[in-house]
Design goal:
heterodimer, A: about 120 residues, mainly alpha, 3 helices, elongated, B: about 475 residues, globular
């Protein structure tokens, strides 16, 4: 399980970096999406993968019975997912607008700001 | 504190005055904070009453307080500038709302005491800056924004991954707790890898050598006041984050990071200034100068000595003011002549001597001529560099100073000294608008002089802050309640 998740993260990062270096807007956007998924997965798995009940403290006890999954990365990744979702949505709209302004799908055509 | 200010805007009509009022409140709040913290204390706020390693903590030490104070000053001055220069349409689109979201993000990043919240605040300020850059939607703006957004999202992804790795290895993201636990973690190469990823992520935000290309591509596209605000605050947040993580979390690996940072600093200075030398657009030229000044800041950090850090902090304060003042003067020239192309400008000294002075003061300060704060900052950096044995980078920094002076002289010759190329009509701008721009510019230019006149006091303050930074134990025990 650990190995396959690690491989998955590696593949996501690799594809993301490859796509982000392409010339088409759409591929850059897809690359950003894949990269943020990869980072989210990395955070999610950072505490290790364990098969265990929820780390809840039973009534009348001071600590949980079995050491459960660490809830912190799950909370972190929840925040990170929301952020990456919002940012990706913004980037989509921006790139769409850029497509309207420039009229092509080619990053190399974006030369307004160069001299 | 900053978020409270963000809530008070959003209405279309009275936004201008609410904007100024909000930033005045922000300045007042940050002054109170600075007055409480700067005598050498560290204030800690555990949000929601959750104690340090578990809850979200806000920490204000000397560096944070100074940065928050500076951003308060910048916020007030730039809001005055905005009032007179931002078009009603942009106001209606929520300009001031975004302005305060940006400030909330910046101040949050300065004050936060844990890595994940630093990431969240970074995203807050990034998304606000994204929208500020595209607000108005001209072609060049969209174009610059695409590069800006892509690079900065990449930085965020790398930052988040580094945070994930550090959490996986230490089980904590609280900066103080990390600083305490990381030395017990033996696998130095993984620690250095995480540190390196943070370096890349913050390097993208700060605009250091191989990663700065988005900055000159985008900074000259939005309205002038936005450029001035960004130059004063955004890259400096990256530098702040670098200083914070390098001094607090990775003091063990200084020997590993020092050569990297020194090389990066040197190359940043050189590429930035070389980019500036060939430019003929005033704002693009100044944007490249931001990059080269960041090199000086990283240089001071790379020395990891009290002198070097103090010089960096002094330089940080100086460059925030001087750079924004230059952008303000550039904005005024643009308003007067309708262009910021140096070839088409000219004769401003004759027609507008006050503007010439407004430009000349921060320009000389930036180039490092003696009576100004830039000279003192560079002198301190050079002294610290010689003391630290970084002779080559010192030599580079001196050479870059000369090139900076050259490019400032070029602006001076082209825009102010030479006769106007075409006797075109000077645009009339209302006195109200001119004063709205000139007032913040004048205050910033004076600020640079005051900083130099009060060099003794301000430098000893910077030295105190630097010593606080180099002794992480104080920070750790302040946050974790002395149980270390």
């Amino acid at each position: 399980m650990q190995i396959s998740l690690a491989l998955l993260i590696a593949v996501l990062f690799g594809c993301g970096f490859y796509l982000i270096m392409r010339r088409s807007y759409l591929k850059v956007i897809l690359g950003i999406m894949l990269l943020s998924h990869a980072a989210n997965m990395l955070v999610f798995t950072s505490a290790g993968i364990v098969r265990s009940p929820a780390p809840l403290v039973p009534e009348g006890m001071q600590a949980a019975e079995a050491s459960g999954a660490d809830p912190v990365p799950q909370a972190l990744v929840l925040t990170a997912i929301v952020i990456s979702f919002g940012v990706t949505a913004f980037a989509l709209v921006l790139f769409r607008r850029a497509y309207d302004v420039v009229g092509t799908d080619d990053i190399d055509e974006l030369r307004h700001t160069e001299i | 504190m900053a978020a409270a200010c963000a809530c008070c805007t959003g209405r279309p009509a009275p936004q201008r005055w609410l904007g100024v009022l909000g930033s005045a409140l922000l300045l007042a709040a940050s002054s109170v904070l600075a007055a409480r913290v700067l005598p050498g204390r560290i204030e800690v706020l555990a949000a929601g009453g959750w104690e340090a390693p578990y809850g979200i903590t806000l920490v204000a030490d000397g560096l944070s307080a100074l940065m928050v104070l500076m951003s308060g000053i910048m916020a007030l001055l730039m809001s005055l500038f905005s009032v007179s220069s931002i078009s009603p349409r942009r106001l209606k689109d929520g300009y001031f709302f975004l302005y305060f979201v940006l400030l909330a993000g910046v101040n949050g990043a300065f004050l936060t005491g844990d890595l994940f919240n630093l990431y969240v605040w970074f995203e807050v300020l990034l998304i606000a800056s994204f929208v500020l850059i595209v607000l108005g939607g001209r072609g060049a703006q969209i174009d610059g924004a695409v590069k800006y957004v892509t690079m900065n999202l990449l930085g965020s992804v790398i930052f988040l991954s580094a945070a994930g790795i550090l959490y996986g290895k230490t089980g904590t993201l609280n900066l103080a707790d990390l600083a305490q636990r990381l030395p017990f973690y033996e696998n130095a190469s993984l620690r250095q890898a995480a540190g390196g990823m943070l370096l890349v992520a913050f390097g993208i935000k700060a605009g250091v050598f191989p990663l700065f290309s988005w900055l000159p591509a985008s900074y000259h596209t939005p309205p002038h006041v936005v450029t001035a605000l960004f130059s004063a605050l955004l890259t400096k947040v990256g530098v702040y984050a670098l200083i914070r993580t390098m001094t607090l979390i990775f003091p063990l690996d200084q020997a590993y990071f020092q050569p990297i940072l020194l090389v990066v600093a040197g190359l940043t200075m050189v590429t930035g200034v070389l980019g500036a030398v060939v430019q003929y657009d005033l704002r693009r030229l100044l944007s490249f100068h931001i990059v080269s000044q960041i090199g000086y800041l990283v240089f001071g950090l790379a020395l990891f000595s009290a002198g070097g850090l103090a010089a960096t902090i002094f330089f940080l304060v100086h460059v925030m003011a001087a750079k924004a003042a230059l952008f303000v003067a550039g904005a005024l020239a643009h308003y007067l002549r309708g262009t910021s192309d140096l070839k088409q400008l000219g004769g401003l000294l004759e027609s507008r001597p006050a503007l010439a002075v407004l430009f000349a003061l921060p320009a000389m300060s930036l180039a490092g001529l003696p009576p100004f704060s830039g000279f003192l900052g560079k002198l301190a950096l050079v002294q610290a560099g010689l003391a630290g044995g970084a002779y080559f980078t010192v030599a580079v920094s001196l050479g870059v100073s000369i090139l900076t002076l050259y490019s400032m002289t070029k602006i001076w010759n082209e825009a102010f000294w030479k006769p106007a190329p075409a006797p075109g009509p000077e645009r009339r701008i209302s006195a109200w608008r001119a004063w709205g721009v000139a007032l913040p510019g004048g205050v910033l230019a004076l600020f640079s002089i005051v900083l130099a006149v009060a060099a003794e006091a301000s430098f000893s303050l910077c030295l105190a802050i630097a010593e606080q930074l180099l002794d992480p134990a104080v920070y750790i025990s302040a946050v974790l309640g002395g149980e270390s």
